[in-house]
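Much of what follows relies on a compact textual record of a protein's fold. A complete example follows; check for yourself that the lines match position by position.
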Amino acid sequence: MIEKQIVIGLASGLEERPIAVLVQMASKYESNVYLISGNKKVNAKSIMGMMGMGMRSGESVTIMTDGVDEIEAANEIINYLKS
């Protein structure tokens, strides 16, 4: 299991289009992928769950991946959210 806290660097934060890209990205991995913010833990493969997060640029979020391709999943998602 990998758990890493990052600051969201996407200029628009996590709005509709960036969320759709993130969900598509997370869904290509076998590993479980979660985003944790405060007391919310959301499956990053769930578009509805992600829409409820409402995170903005500059906010901290923890990425958690667990599974056979957890390293690749964590790296790609972290790089995307920090960009």
Notes: The two ends are 23 Å apart (CA to CA). The mean pLDDT is 93.
